[in-house]
Amino acid sequence: MIYYFSGTGNSYAAAKKLAEGLGEDLMDIALAVREGNDTYTLEKGERLGFVFPVYAWAPPKVVIDFVKNLKLYYTGEPYIFAVCTCGSSVGKTMDIFEDALEENGLVLDSGFSVVMPDNCVILFDAETKEKTAQKLEKAEKTLDNILRAIRLNWSGFFRVKRGKGGSLLSTVVNPAFTKGMKPKAFYVTNDCIGCGQCERICTSGCIAVTAGKPVWTEDTCNMCLACINRCPVQAIQYGKKTAKRGRYIHPIYQTGETNK
Ligand SMILES: Cc1cc2nc3c(=O)[nH]c(=O)nc-3n(C[C@H](O)[C@H](O)[C@H](O)COP(=O)(O)O)c2cc1C
Ligand code: SF4
Ligand code: SF4
Q1: Does domain 2-176 have CATH number 3.30.70.1530?
Q2: Contacts of residue 94, Cβ cutoff 8 Å, sequence gap at least 6
C-alpha cells in the first residue's frame, strides 16, 4: 500500500509511478482522513509507502497526524519507505517523518527526496516552462533509482536533499512559516465562473461554492495550494502578489486525471 498526499499532482504522480512499478495499491491520505479511514491490514510481504510534499522543510501536518494515528495490522516486519517531493530542499523533513512513524511503533527502512517543480505560488512566481520540463525529466530518473532501491528492500538507506541550514529551517523557521500561512488570505475575483473545481479538489474540504463563488469555510486548510493553482481561470488569489504570478499543475492533473 502506498499512501500519498498531493495538492498539485507532483506527489500523486510520484506515488502512482512507484505503485505501478511495485504492484502496490494507492490511497489518498486527504480522502482517508475525511472518510475516517485510519485502519489497514498489510498482506504478508506487502510494502508500506508514504509519498508527500515538503511544506516549509517539514511534512504537511495532515500527513504527520495520519501516520501517528494509523492503525496498522501486519505479521512479520513490514518494509516501510517514504518519498517526499520538494522544489529544492527538505531540511529535516525525513527525520520528522521518521519520528512520527516511531511514535506509532513503526520503523522507516528507507527515505528519499525528489526535486520537482515548486508549487508555492503564494511566495514565488511559478517556474519557467523550460525549468519545469527539466525538473520533471530529472524527477523521472530519480524515481527510477528509488524504485530500484525499494524493489531490493534496501534498509537503513536514506537519500534526501537536506540543503543548507536544514536543521534550523525545519525547527525554527517552520513554526513561524506555518503560523503565517492563513487561509483567510485567499479570495476570489470576478473572473470566477462558478465551476466548483476548487470545492471538489480541496484536500481539507474547507471550500464551499456558495452562490456560484468559493467561500473558505473552516480553519482546517492544509495550505496544499491546490485551489489557487488549479482554478481553470486563475480567479483565486492570495494576498497582493499572486495576481501577477503564474500557476503550477503537474501534467498528470492537466490531462484531466485527478485524485478524486
Ligand atoms: C506551503 C508550501 C511550502 C513549501 N515549502 C517547501 C520547502 O520548504 N522546500 C521545498 O523544496 N519545497 C517547498 N514547497 C514546494 C513543494 O514541496 C513542491 O512543489 C511539491 O512537490 C508539491 O507537491 P504536490 O504537487 O504533490 O502538492 C512548498 C510548497 C508549499 C505549498
Ligand atoms: S475553481 Fe475557480 S472558477 Fe471554479 S469555482 Fe473555484 S474559483 Fe471559481
Ligand atoms: S483551501 Fe486551498 S490550500 Fe487550503 S486545503 Fe483547500 S485547496 Fe488546499
Answers
A1: no
A2: 82, 84, 108, 111, 113, 158, 160
